[in-house]
Amino acid sequence: MVGRRSGFRSDVTLQGEYEPSAADWVREQVEKYEASGGTEANTLQGHPEWPIVVITSRGHKSGKLRKNPVMRVEKDGVYAAVASKGGAPEQPEWYHNFIADPHVDLQDGPEPHEYVARVAEGDERAEWWERCVAQYAPYAEYQEKTDREIPVFLLERA
């Protein structure tokens, strides 16, 4: 059950104070997704071909729980989270959260589950990168915009 004031959910594995995103669209999408059990706000900005999941991580600076909608890329129960930040030169904040504490909650539908994130490398990254671009073609453009290799995290059930 979602506690409206605290943002606390008793059905997740990560515990602590939840700090909603400063970005209105992120905060609103996460709220709608969670309130509906994933039946609403489950695509990227109304594009039905671009489904999302919500990932909860622990803030690497604050220690507070942070929630982000990310593209849904899944194969055999393993999910990918692409740290693209739209091709910006710097990593998204959640990248640092995953590195500092790889234990996350991922919600794909009505219930969140505990996952462990790790950075894919080498051939495994190449295979997953291809899968991610097939799901969301703008990733290829984002990679062209930046000098950094965009990290692909693999999230596996804990």
3D architecture notes:
- With 158 residues, the protein is α+β, with helices and mostly antiparallel strands.
- The chain has a single domain, classed as Roll (Pnp Oxidase, Chain A).
- It is 27% helix and 30% strand.
- It is built from four helices and eight strands; from the N terminus they run H-E-E-E-E-E-H-E-E-H-H-E.
- The chain has helices at 24-35, 93-100, 122-135, 138-145, and strands at residues 43-44, 47-58, 65-71, 73-75, 78-82, 103-107, 112-119, 152-157.
- Strands 1, 2, 3, 4, 5, 6, 7 and 8 form an eight-stranded antiparallel sheet that branches.
- A hairpin with a 6-residue loop joins strand 2 and strand 3 (65-71).
- Residues 1-9 have low confidence and may be disordered.
Characterize this entry briefly:
The chain has helices at 24-35, 93-100, 122-135, 138-145, and strands at residues 43-44, 47-58, 65-71, 73-75, 78-82, 103-107, 112-119, 152-157.
Q: Tell how many strands the DSSP assignment holds.
A: 8
What structural class should be given to the helix and strand makeup? alpha+beta
Number of helices: 4
Question: Helicity, in percent?
Answer: 25-40%
Which band does the percent of strand residues land in? 25-35%
Which architecture does the CATH hierarchy give at level 2?
Answer: Roll
Secondary structure elements and pairings:
Layout: H1 24-35, E1 43-44, E2 47-58, E3 65-71, E4 73-75, E5 78-82, H2 93-100, E6 103-107, E7 112-119, H3 122-135, H4 138-145, E8 152-157
Antiparallel strand pairs: 1-2, 2-3, 2-6, 4-5, 5-8, 6-7, 7-8
